[in-house]
Amino acid sequence: MKELYSIHSTWQRRLAVSAMTALSTWGVHHGLLAQDAPSTRTPATQGYVELLSENDFWVLHGTDRYYTNGGALSLTLNTTPDVVFAWLPKLLPPIPKPSHEPNAPAEIFWSTRYAFTQQMFTPAKISISDKISTDRPYAGWMFWSVTVNRDMRVNGCIKFKNCVDDTLELQVGVVGPTSQADDTQATWHRWFGLNRPMGWSHQIRNEPGLLLRYSRAYPVRHTWGAVGIEGAPVFEAAAGTIAIYAKGGARLRVGYNFDDDVMRGAWSAADRKPSVYLFSELTGGVSAHNLFLAGNTFRKRSDNIAHVSQKNILSEFRTGAVVSLGSWRLSYTHVWKSREFERQDHGHKYGGVTLGATFPL
Length: 361
What we know:
The chain is mainly β. It has three helices and 16 strands.
């Protein structure tokens, strides 16, 4: 058979460009508020350091398959990015102006998150050393990321489009053995007496990875004293060598002292009250590319790199709880994902736990 190179097709590249362009220009047609028009709160610089663990161990009857483990160490600052990444906030689309309250004062809260992350993906049967052509391939992804958050608030978010939450994340890293995902899984399984993973020799090969992800939400809130409920439509799109997708859905939060969650702008522990809330988010969308299913971006068919046919319509539901007390913040998230590839027998679930603390700089 004549060798062909499995490079992303033209329509996939066009979808990536179209998705990011549409997100960047969408607000232009809905009335704009200049980015420097609202007042930007500039409190004393604060930091927030956080550890994240995602694993199917965190859910009952964990299956040790698919997206099986992720770990991250991050530092968040209540400022815009430094000189190196000062260009990143400029990629955010303009903020839509609330047409029903054109003269209401607005505040903008900025934060920047720097993170180091490792993720691993495996087939269902990790005790088999042979290549499994009907299951997802072994893959590791180690990356560095910078995430810019911009939250605009007008009049307590009591009306639609009074508040806008924007997030733009840049991920740069490496896929393949260099990610050290195989060694990480083997070490943890040895420490805890679990099955030894045998098939990492068939993992996706080394290649650099890049992903740009953007999301926007329009929270609407009603409060009764310190107790409140908040709902928000959410939209997200991403493009890069790692993935190309777009999705939308809804988010719900119910709890006590929303604004005293450190990740919502309450940085000073001295001024922050205890915060407890529950959250849920349901999203669905389309996926044009997933490197962890499709295999290496540039390869010959004769290379025999593991890959499977992905599903293009996906859905996800996540729910959990957040507790903030003083300088500390603890959260738990339970995630259900629909089937991602052909011949996958059922969806997948995993849990995530974060522990973090604020500190002055």
